[in-house]
């Protein structure tokens, strides 16, 4: 068996290969990567906040339209259900004289007292569907306005459309009407009545013994900021209730008398 040759203690060790330097980022590369990351974050932030702003604006607009449609729905039902004047639970339709059932000041009166059948009958109210309604413009944003906290900022100097409802038309003692704020941010409101030939802002059923053929309710919303005021909102409600005088006049007109 062959023995291994002895190794001398003075033999030279094998030379080591030089180590390669570890790969690393230079300062320039770090600056470029930081700049790219900042641009990406800026784009993401702009997109996110733009989408959030659009979301809030859209929801505010939807809520504003919902409040407006609710107010117009009340107006439409009140005028469409108007009762014939002179009944037990109805008074005259007059733009100059108002019923004594409504006491107190609610602001600028817009409509006459409307005796209408628009009330809701339920198991909690002892009254019938007949009620008296009047519309006012109250200064400022009235406390209790429907969804006022979720609608856009109310323009300064605007008014609130208020619906005053009297359910008990045969009160034994002093009556307390219900004040229901409907629509904030209103600049002005007007009502016109159609007599069959044209529009007028005056009506007295006690004198004419008739009701208007239709009612036009116009709302002018206040301008927001320094912008132009929006176009007026108009709703025309046909009046289906006809008095004996109106029926006679219609029959004579059809007969050519």
In words, what does this structure look like?
The model is unreliable at 143-151 (pLDDT under 50). With 257 residues, the protein is of the alpha+beta class. The longest helix is centred in the first third of the chain and has 54 residues, at 27-80. Strands 1, 2, 3, 4, 5, 6, 7 and 8 form an 8-stranded antiparallel β-sheet that branches. It is elongated, with a radius of gyration of 38 Å. 27% of the residues lie in helices and 21% in strands. It has one domain (56-255). The chain starts with 26 loop residues before the first helix and ends with a helix. It is built from 3 helices and 8 strands, in the order αββββββαββα. 21% of the residues are buried.
Topology of helices and strands:
Blueprint (H helix, E strand, L loop, with lengths): L26 H54 L27 E2 L4 E3 L14 E9 L19 E8 L11 E17 L4 E2 L4 H4 L5 E8 L11 E6 L5 H12 L2
Antiparallel strand pairs: 1-3, 2-3, 3-4, 4-5, 5-6, 5-7, 7-8
What gap, in angstroms, lies between the N and C termini? 151 Å
What class, by secondary structure content?
A: alpha+beta
Give the integer mean of the pLDDT values.
82
State the helix count: 3
Properties at a glance:
eight-stranded antiparallel sheet, single chain, 257 residues, alpha+beta, 27% helix
Compact description:
This protein has helices at 27-80, 205-208, 244-255; strands at residues 108-109, 114-116, 131-139, 159-166, 178-194, 199-200, 214-221, 233-238. With 257 residues, it is an alpha+beta fold.
């Amino acid at each position: 068996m062959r023995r291994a040759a002895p190794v001398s203690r003075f033999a030279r060790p094998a030379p080591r290969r030089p180590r390669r330097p570890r790969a690393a980022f230079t300062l320039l590369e770090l600056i470029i990567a930081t700049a790219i990351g900042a641009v990406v974050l800026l784009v993401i932030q702009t997109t996110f906040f733009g989408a959030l702003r659009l979301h809030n604006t859209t929801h505010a607009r939807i809520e504003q339209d919902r409040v407006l449609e609710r107010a117009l729905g009340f107006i439409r039902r009140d005028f469409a259900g108007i009762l014939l004047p002179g009944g037990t639970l109805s008074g005259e339709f007059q733009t100059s004289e108002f019923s004594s059932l409504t006491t107190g000041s609610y602001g600028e009166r817009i409509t006459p007292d409307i005796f209408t059948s628009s009330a809701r009958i339920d198991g909690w109210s002892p009254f019938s569907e007949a009620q008296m309604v009047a519309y006012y413009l109250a200064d400022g944003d009235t406390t209790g306005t429907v969804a006022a906290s979720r609608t856009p900022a109310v323009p300064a100097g605007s008014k609130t459309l208020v619906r005053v409802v009297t359910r008990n038309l045969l009160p034994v003692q002093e009556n307390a009407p219900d004040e229901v704020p409907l629509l904030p941010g209103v600049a002005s409101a007007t009502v016109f009545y159609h007599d069959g030939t044209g529009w007028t802002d005056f009506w007295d059923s006690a004198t004419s013994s008739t009701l208007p053929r239709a009612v036009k309710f116009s709302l002018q919303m206040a301008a927001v900021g320094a912008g132009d005021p929006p176009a007026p909102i108009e709703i025309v409600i046909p009046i289906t209730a006809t008095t004996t005088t109106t029926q006679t006049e219609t029959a004579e007109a059809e007969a050519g008398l």
